[in-house]
Each structure stands twice: as C-alpha cells, then as structure tokens.
Design a protein that fits this description.
Layout (H helix, E strand, L loop, with lengths): L1 H10 L1 H66 L2 H8 L5 H4 L1 H10 L5 E8 L4 E4 L3 E3 L14 H6 L3 E6 L11 E11 L2 E11 H5 L9 E5 L5 E3 L8 H11 L4 E6 L2 E9 L6 E7 L1 H36 L1 H10 L36 H13 L5 H11 L9 E7 L2 H6 L3 H19 L3 E6 L5 E8 L7 H16 L3 E5 L9 H12 L2 H4 L4 E3 L16 H12 L3 H18 L3 H22 L12 H5 L3 H23 L2 H15 L7 H7 L4 H12 L3 H19 L4 H7 L5 H12 L3 H8 L22
Helix pairs in contact: 2-9, 11-12, 18-19, 18-20, 19-22, 26-29
Keywords: DNA-binding, Membrane, Transcription, Transcription regulation, Transmembrane, Transmembrane helix
InterPro entries: CdaR_GGDEF (IPR041522), Homeodomain-like_sf (IPR009057), HTH_AraC (IPR018060), HTH_AraC-typ_CS (IPR018062), Tscrpt_reg_AraC-type_HTH (IPR020449)
Pfam family, one: HTH_18
C-alpha cells in the first residue's frame, strides 16, 4: 500500500511541484541565512580591525614618545662633559666631581613623570642621583634595587624594567616605576650607566581606552606591563592568546569560552607588544538570532511542504479510505480538508546587513585627523585614500576642499616659556577654538603633522564659502587675545577632490614661508600668478656661509658678524625665496653644530634643542639676531679652546708638516716631534681637526703640488720629490685620488702660459702616462 502511494504521488505533477518548491525554498532560506551571517561577520571584522589597529598605533605613539624623550635625555647625559668628568674621576675625587652633574640631573628631573635620574659608576660602585645626591657606595643609597641589573646594563644599549620603589621615601612607598637605563662608554668599555625612573601610572594614564575593549602591554620577555590591577582574565589564559595570535596583526581567539577579536602591534622603540581584545558576543548576538531564524524558517518550510503533500495525498486516496471504512466500520479515520496548491511560506527576510561599526564612532575625530596627516604627507595611496574617505567622512561632499595651516610664531621661544603639559593644554584649547570658529560655516578636520603648526581641512557647508582670508585674520586676533599666542596663517588654493589636499597643503606652507619677510601675525594666501620672491643666487649662495665659518675658525667674531649682517641685508634687498633662505641657514647651523660636536664644545642656548622647523617659524630679523648670538657664543668658546694644550700641540704638528713637506716623513717622525706616541697623537689630531693625521699630511702635499703645477714649469717627477714623494707613480696615484685628475691634466686645465718641462713618455716606459 505504501509503495503504491509513493509511486502514485511521485507520478503526480502537483505533488512533484510541491516537493520541488519545498526543498528549493528551504535551501534558499538556508543559503541566505548562512551567507548573510558570513558577510556580516567579515564586514564586522573589517570595520573593527581598522580602528582598533589605529587605536593601538595611537597608544604606541604615546608610549614611544614618552620613552623617546627620556631616552634622548639619557643619551645626552651619557655624553655630557660633566658626567664624563665624573666617570673619569678618581674615587677620592668622586664627591667633588659629582657636584656639577647632580645639579644638571635635578634640572632634567623636573618633569612630573620623572621620579629620579641617576648616574651609576661601575668601577668604584658610586652613584649620583637627582633625588638623594652622591653616595660613595650603592648600598648606601636610599634606593638601589637596580644593582641586580648591572650585567644587563652592560650588555644592552637600552634597558627598560618595571619595578616597585623600595627606598626610604615614605611618599613613594609602593609606587610603580618604569626604569630606563643607557650605558656610558669610555674608550670602548662600559664604565657606567644613566638610569631614569618614570612614573608608571602617569605614563599609562595617557593611553586611550574604550569601555568595550581590553588592552594589554607585554615586554620583550613576555611579562605583563599593563594593566597592573583588576586583570579581566587569568595570566595563563592570556599566555594562550599570545601563542594563538603569534606575530599576526589580527586573529580570533577564545577566552573562558567566549570569542574575542584580538589586534596587536609592536613598538620599535621599547620592543613592547600592545594587544587589544574586543568581545564578539554582543556584536554578533543579533546576527546569530537572524541566522537561527532563517534556519528555523527553512525547517518550517519543509514541514509545511510535507504537510501539504500529506494533505494532498489524503484527498487523492479518499475513495480508497471510504471503501476501507465500509469494509471496516469500526476503524476511526481522522477527517482532512482538501489542499491541492502549496501557498508560499516565505515571509519578510532579515533586512539590510550593511555593516556600520558603532565601535569606531567614538574615535572618529582621531581617525579623521590621522587620515589628514597621512594625506598631506603622502603616506597613503589612492585606493586607501578613497576607502578611508568613504568610511570616515559620511555626510561630506566630494568637494571642494581647502587647506589652512596655522603656525605658532617663534615656536622655540614660545615652547621655552611653558612646560610640555601647558603647551599641550594651550594647543588643545587652540584646536577647540578653531573648531568653534569655523564650525557654523565649514566642515572642519584638524591635524598636527609638526609641533609648530595646526593643519585645518575645510569644506564649506553651502555654496557660499564666505571670506576665508578675513575670517582667518579674525582667528589670529582671537588666539592672541584669548590664549596670548602669536600665530601666522597660510592658505592654499581650493581643490576639487580629497586626493589633491596634499597640493593645497604645500601651497599653504609656501604662503606661510613669506612670514620671513612680512613678519608675524598675518594671513597669506597662495597665488600661482604671484611670484614676489625669486630663487635668487647672489644673496643666498654658499660664499657668505663659508666666510662665516672661516671667520669663526679664525677666531674673528667681528668679521663673522659683518658677514651675517651683510647676508641679511642682501637677502632682504634681493627678496630670495624664503624656502631657500631657510635651507641655507639650516646648512650653516648644521656646520656650526658639527664644529661644536667634533670639538666637544658647549652649544649656545639657541641650539640646545635645534631642528630646522625652528628657523621656519622666525622672520629674517630674528634669524639674523639668532645667528649673531650663535656667532658670539661660538667665537668665545673657540677662543678659550685656542689656549688648550691639545690645540697648541696640533698647531705645532701642522707647522712641522708644512715645513717638512719635501722630506720623506711619516707618522712616526711627526709624533716624535712632540715626544708622544703615534696612537695618542693620532687620537688628539682626529678630535681637534676631524680628520686623520695621514690624510691631513697628504692634502698638504697635494695642495703644495697644485701650487707648483700652476706656478712653475718643473717636471712632474721633480714636483713629486719637492712634496715628499720618492716615487713618481705614487705621487700620481695620490694626486688622482684627491683631485680626481692626474697632475698633467690638472696643469693643462690651469692653462699655465709657459712651456712645460715634461714631455710625453713613450708607452713602453715603466712610468704611468700622466696625461691619461
């Protein structure tokens, strides 16, 4: 009977249609549910991964900046003359030698996040600290928990340790510290170290956090650095997470039976590993419900189809059932209605699954600012630009855009008047004022690619963009009145697409550079038709720079000052392009820094923390005043150095070499002249002149040879003998190495009018052909 029913039903067209529709609809619903779940999951991963990675990058930049500033202090201390004097002092003189570095350490340890700065001397186990002064032995210091790291300090160029304060200061009991150590090297040996103790809580309080995510920081040894309290997960479980994510920037992990999205990044300064965990349960709760509903609908459709087939079969076999009932009247059969058509069971499917990450919305201003910084510095490509524009700038139009650059006048002088925290507070206030000022009429995003400026991306909210130049002038007045900050503003030309914003930024920077001549507190618009300042050559060439350097090295401060003032007057008169003026001034300052560094001379106050941006924020009068101050300082320093025994000894060596150029003298003879060893003489000569003794002697000989080639008709072989070369080939090789031409070609290029005594040598002779 069952076989007969199945055969009859499958041969029936209506039954086959119901069966096909049932399984087709159920399969379609199942596929839609699974596909929607997968697409939502992938889109959610993409939307969450980007902001979380960038948030980690922002936090990494915060910690890197703090450690880089402390590391710079440690490096400066490792080479500071007072510290080196203390390191070289005899144990009996340690206390006296420690007085000067102690005052310097106290000055550097004034930042609130720095608890103490110490200089450790390995040789005699003495130490000097900004907090407790000099101690002859480590064990006598109020706090010396670092003595167990001495071997690591000797081996690593940068050591960072987390520890708890164990000293006698009751106010600091139990305080968490991050200790940064830099070795001090003398004559190739590690003789001591600089130790800077940073406040743990203050450092990590600067990190950005989000309520729905967890952040962790691990060091190179895999030890947990942050957080230190109220850990959301056991350390053993976190170790499994570290193993799962390995070096991948993104992974899905499970903790205590729950799914999390893990992102990580690594610091190139400290080597630390920053990890964030975002719980997926709440994010995927709704989509899981939708997926389960789809599967339930699929099962319901199958059930409905089977019911329809059953109901149809009941109607088809009703005559047989009636006969069966007549034959067996006692059998009770349930009644069924007729159903010959299957109605659609598909309802409304779950709606739009286009993902729009709510997690990223809280950090949208920071992401927009980072996007503008990358855009104007050309750090991202076209495809990435368009993708991030669509994600971060909903509600903005395609164009136009304009870049406005706000720069703090005399930035280095302004920063010297405030501690770093006050500087950040004032810049934060300036950023808020800019937003409120432009907010009513413009869509606004700000970025800070450099410390001295604030870049503003503007787009008008309506077709009437207003008078941007006049508005910028009002903004300058507001910042001056409210924050007491003098600023200048450069405005680039409007661009039609966001990808062209870098061009508008370059134009605003060029307009801003005219501050060099026009002074502070002005607004300048870029104009492609205006070329007021030309790339002049006479006023900004290298001649004046070389004259200033020569006068400094000759201890002639008056001449150096005259050249600086003459250059300033010529530059203003000939209106040299501002950017070229900045480059030339930066080159001169770089040369002066090299002179000071190579000679171990103290730097003037203007160059204590010099970068080329310092010159960009000054006008020509201030640049001239700064250069004159630097020249006066360096002249005094070099004049004092002129009386040192090392300088006098080097001058004696030079005089000896100049008077014995024709002799076959070597390094041994030169050192014997001052009754010292070759190694000691070479070291002192290198420190004083920046070149080796051998190279200096060779250059003297070649310069003298050039004079003889130009001013006499002597043969090449005779000239070689007169400048100390016994072999003509050796002389030609040395001359070619320095002058890049042979002596013969040099003589020809100088066009000496007399007939030369040298005649061409035959090819088969054993002497090199000098004319080649």
């Amino acid at each position: 009977m069952l076989r007969f029913k199945l055969k009859y039903l499958l041969n029936n067209k209506q039954t086959r249609l119901i069966l096909m529709l049932t399984f087709s609809v159920s399969l379609l619903i199942t596929l839609i549910g699974l596909f929607s779940y997968r697409e939502y999951r992938n889109a959610l991963d993409t939307e969450l991964n980007t902001p979380n990675v960038e948030l980690l990058q922002i936090n990494m930049d915060v910690t890197n900046r703090a450690f880089r500033e402390s590391d710079n202090k440690a490096v400066d201390l490792a080479f500071h003359p007072a510290v080196l004097k203390y390191m070289d002092a005899n144990p009996a003189d340690n206390e006296l030698a420690a007085a000067e570095p102690q005052n310097f350490l106290k000055t550097l340890a004034t930042e609130p996040d720095v608890h103490a700065i110490s200089v450790i001397k390995f040789g005699d186990h003495s130490v000097v600290s900004s907090s407790y002064g000099y101690r002859a032995l480590w064990e006598e210091a109020p706090e010396h928990a670092w003595n167990s790291w001495i071997d690591e300090m000797k081996q690593k160029p940068l050591l960072i340790k987390r520890r708890v304060y164990t000293g006698t200061d009751a106010r600091l009991t139990g305080t968490e510290l991050l200790s940064l150590a830099r070795p001090i090297v003398r004559n190739g040996d590690v003789t001591g170290a600089v130790l800077i103790d940073l406040d743990y809580d203050m450092l990590f309080s600067k990190m950005y956090t989000h309520l729905s995510s967890y952040q962790f920081v691990y060091n190179l040894e895999g030890e947990l650095i942050y957080p230190k309290l109220n850990l959301p997960f056991p350390l053993a479980d976190m170790n499994n997470v570290l193993s799962d994510i390995d070096v991948s920037p993104f992974a899905h992990v499970k903790l205590q039976g729950k799914a999390y999205m893990a992102n990580q990044t690594f610091s190139n300064v400290t080597g630390w590993r920053l990890i964030s965990l975002v719980p997926m349960e709440q994010l995927l709760k709704n989509v899981k419900t939708a997926r389960n509903m789809m599967l339930m609908l699929s099962l319901i459709s199958i059930a409905v189809g089977c019911s329809a087939i059953y109901y149809y079969s009941f109607a088809a076999f009703r005559p047989l059932k009636r006969i069966n009932k007549l034959l067996m009247p006692d059998q009770k059969l349930a009644g069924h209605g007729n159903l010959y058509d299957l109605e659609p069971v598909i309802g409304k499917l779950v709606g739009d699954f286009q993902s729009k990450s709510l997690v990223a919305e809280w950090s949208l201003p920071e992401l927009r600012s980072k996007f503008v910084s990358d855009l104007i510095t050309r750090s991202i490509g076209t495809q990435e630009t368009l993708t991030k524009w669509e994600h971060y700038f909903g509600g903005w139009k395609e164009g136009p855009f304009v870049i406005l650059t706000i720069s703090v006048d005399r930035h280095s002088k302004w920063t010297s008047a405030y501690v770093e925290e006050d500087q950040l507070l004032l810049k934060y206030a300036m950023n808020n004022i800019v937003f409120e000022f432009f907010g009513p009429a413009w869509r606004t995003v700000t970025a800070t690619p450099r410390k001295d400026n604030l870049v503003v991306l503007l787009q008008p909210k309506d077709d009437n963009s207003g008078h941007l130049r006049e508005d910028a002038g009002k903004l300058i007045a507001i910042l001056s009145d409210v924050l007491k900050i003098s600023v200048s503003i450069g405005i680039g030309e409007p661009v039609s697409a966001i990808s062209q914003a870098a061009r508008s930024y370059s134009e605003s920077e060029l307009a801003l550079s005219y501050r060099l001549y026009e002074g502070y507190g002005h607004v300048r618009e870029f104009s492609a038709k205006e070329s007021k300042y030309e790339e002049g050559g006479a006023a900004a060439d290298d001649a004046w720079r070389l004259e200033v350097l020569h006068a400094l090295k000759s201890f002639d401060a008056a001449t150096a000052l005259q050249w600086v003032r003459k250059w300033s007057a010529d530059t203003r008169k000939k209106a040299v392009q501002p950017q070229k003026v900045v480059r030339v001034v930066d080159d001169l300052i770089g040369e002066i820094l090299n002179v000071a560094t190579s000679g171990g001379h103290p730097l003037p106050a203007e160059l204590a923390d010099y970068t080329w941006h310092q010159v960009m924020t000054m006008d020509l009068s201030d640049i001239e005043e700064m250069l004159c101050s630097i020249v006066i300082h360096m002249s005094g320093v070099l004049e004092v150095h002129r009386q040192s025994k090392e300088y006098l000894m080097v001058q004696e060596l030079i005089r000896y070499m100049e008077s014995h150029l024709q002799d076959n003298i070597g390094l041994q003879d030169i050192a014997a002249h001052v009754k010292m060893g070759v190694s000691s003489v070479s070291t002192i000569f290198k420190e004083e002149t920046g070149t080796t003794l051998y190279d200096y002697l060779t250059n003297l000989r070649i310069d003298k040879a050039c004079e003889l080639l130009q001013g006499s008709s002597l043969r090449i072989a005779e000239i070689a003998l007169r400048v100390g070369y016994q072999n003509e080939n050796s002389f030609i090789r040395a001359f070619r190495k320095i002058k890049s031409v042979t002596p013969g070609k040099f003589r020809e290029s100088s066009k000496y009018p007399n007939e030369y005594a040298d005649r061409p040598k035959p090819r088969h002779s054993g002497v090199s052909d000098d004319s080649e």
